[in-house]
Amino acid sequence: MKTLQTSVRIALRALRVNRTRSALTMLGIIIGVAAVIAMVGVGSGATERIQDEIQSIGSNLIIVLPGSINSNGVRLGSGGVATLTDEDAKALATECPSIALAAPAVRGGVQIVYGNNNWATTVQGVTPDYLTLRDYTMSSGQFFTTQDVDAAAKSAVLGQTVVDNLFGDANPVGQVVIVKNVPFTVSGVLTPKGQSPTGQDQDDVVLLPISTARQKVLGANKANAKAVGSVMIQAISPEAMDDAMQETETLLRERHRILPGLDDDFTIRNLTEVFAAQETSARVMAILLGAIASVSLVVGGIGIMNIMLVSVTERTREIGLRLAIGAKQKHILSQFLVEAVTLSLVGGMIGIVVGVTASVLISHFADWSTDISGLSVVASFLFSGMVGVFFGYYPARKAAFLNPIEALRYE
Amino acid sequence: MPPVIKIQNLVKDFHLGEVPVHVLKGVSFDIERGEFVAIMGPSGSGKSTLMNILGCLDTPSSGRYWLDDISVEELESDDLAEIRSKKIGFVFQQFNLLARTTATENVELPLLYTETPGAERHRRALEALRAVGLAGREGHQPSQLSGGQQQRVAIARSLVNNPSIILADEPTGALDSRMGLEIMAIFQRLNREQGITMIVVTHDPDIANYANRTLHLKDGWLQEDERIAHPRDARLDALELSEPAAAANAVGGAA
Description:
A: two-stranded antiparallel sheet; B: Rossmann fold
């Protein structure tokens, strides 16, 4: 302990004597640490934004679309044929143990009118389960009830974008809007969700009871009055996703009487998985950025080693003198090691300040969300200390094992 | 009282090529406490090697060496460092002061390795600087001091650990003759007043005149062990040199 204290004192004295060189050596580490912090900040900011978007669509979601049927050799895409019905949705919700909720939905584009304002938007005919399933909450008013659905009530729930465009700052709850010449009473407004992972505005929507939507707004499918555009399913847990998909397929094949060997007349998609892939790619990007920045930290370390080697050669006589007047090898070793570690740690601290400042500036001017984690700050500080030890050890060892007689004679 | 240095049959070989070079071929002598010894010899006589061994910077190939009754020829490098730290003060031809470091800090240097507390380090450094007549220059850096003053800082540094011996390797070699005499005067005073054992390695017979014993080395052997009953007084000689009138008289008298 005493030795270390002595070494720190001697090392700090030596660094102070060579101020310019110490500062230049530190520059490499400063840039390295700053780059790591800023890059990791940018990367994890991006990951976080995607995670928020994924959260916004709801969790453990599976979507079932009708269609994908082979009709006289022509294969139609998803949604091409109306094969899913309200009953399918009900059966899925009641008969499958891995499924918590199943909400049928129909959708279509409409022009919605209030007073002398109008707005083109998407109408979704849904059941109250849809609210739970998509993690929607109400910012004002009420969602329509199951009774409203059964009675085909003319009530509507608006997204914030629609409210902004039709009502401005006025309170829409209780007002009457016109959709396809049908008056609807606004029963509530959804809490804004922002963008979906695919970049759609999730607040530009009008939710109606599915029965009303089919009968009065979108028009029922002529072949099948019970047809729905999609069924959204929520599994009971993330682990139950695969089971839920399997149960859905089995049940729907059974209900649609599809013989073994024939294609499904529906398509099942795991929504969470699709968006998780985006998250993974963002995370890979973040790791990549951090890794590239770490390379500059290693280069900074090599800079320290370079300067320390020069310093050992330049101070050979000094080392010889120190050995002659009673320094032990451990004193010399720790002196040079402490010099290197001090350079890298002080550089690391300045680098943290520069890095944090840089990412604040990036998020401010480039409007790019950055996220400085305490972990990345601590980790890069420790890493810079390790760089100092690793690259300082070889020069320090070289200094400690100098022969005092030859070192004293060195010109 | 045992001698401060006792060496017996000291041999040092170097193996540079295939043929070993015998630098010291069996040197024996004692140095008593309080002696002022000059080790003389032409280059190649082995005096530097002897000095390195006496200073515990090197170990002999064979033979015995006791410093203050401690047998040092078989010690490991850390133990040798310990001996150097506690028992030996070094003065070099090139001073070897740390640049851009004050006189006080330079003198404190040996105390850093004996883990002396800061306040005491400072006190002893100032005391040593006073002993070599550098009071008032404590904050000066080597570049602000003359050669003679730098060598005096180096002497203060060698004194600060209260060593048993001070080993000086050509201490006047880089100085003009007047400054050289001043350095020798300091050595004589430290030797006389504080009883410090002085060993000066030199090739200059004039410098050897100030010691009370001269060991002549030649070709790795101790050729002559000469005791001088009345060595010259370096302080008087320095005074004489600095006063042109006295110097002129001396020259006139000689003619």
